[in-house]
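haha ok so turns out i had the wrong file open the whole time. this is the CORRECT one, sorry everyone. sequence first:
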Amino acid sequence: MDYRQFYDLEAYLFDTVGPRFRQEGSLDAFDFFCIVIWKANRAKSRVARRLLACGYADLESAVRALTSELASQPAARERLRCLICKWRFRLPMASAILTVLYPEEFSIYDQRVCSSLGAFAHLSVLTSFDALWDGYQEFLCAVRQATPESLTLRERDRYLWGKAFHDQLVADLERGFGALAPPESSPMCG
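then structure:
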């Protein structure tokens, strides 16, 4: 095995995992948890517990069931409903999973992207799936409108994430990262 493929996890996900899912109709636990770790490494244990709590003997069978069920859904709305309502994922993780598996239909719901758009931070707390779906569709429309037309949906997400990163770093630098004024004399400053 060439372990270098895991160094750039995003490339592995979009070049290998997504196409494998679309060809085979399911994923194994390793590839699924690569998506989870890529989105939020801190969430992997919580996701594993949630999957096992659904009555599966192991993560492999839980992930196969989840991803097979996703593949059987006829449209984007049902795919998101499956992850949110049945499997109890929240929008940020559900949208990350679906973005890897269906990059033409989904974009990652992320606080940096919401920051770039100046809206949509409320979506992650909506409890009505219909309201969540409508809000997510508005989010996707805003993502498309705020980015160059020539970009794919995935590239638009990366564009807005990069813009938020850039703008935040510029603001942090301008305010000195919120640091207090430097002391009169410091051993490091000579």
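The radius of gyration is 19 Å.
again sry for the mixup
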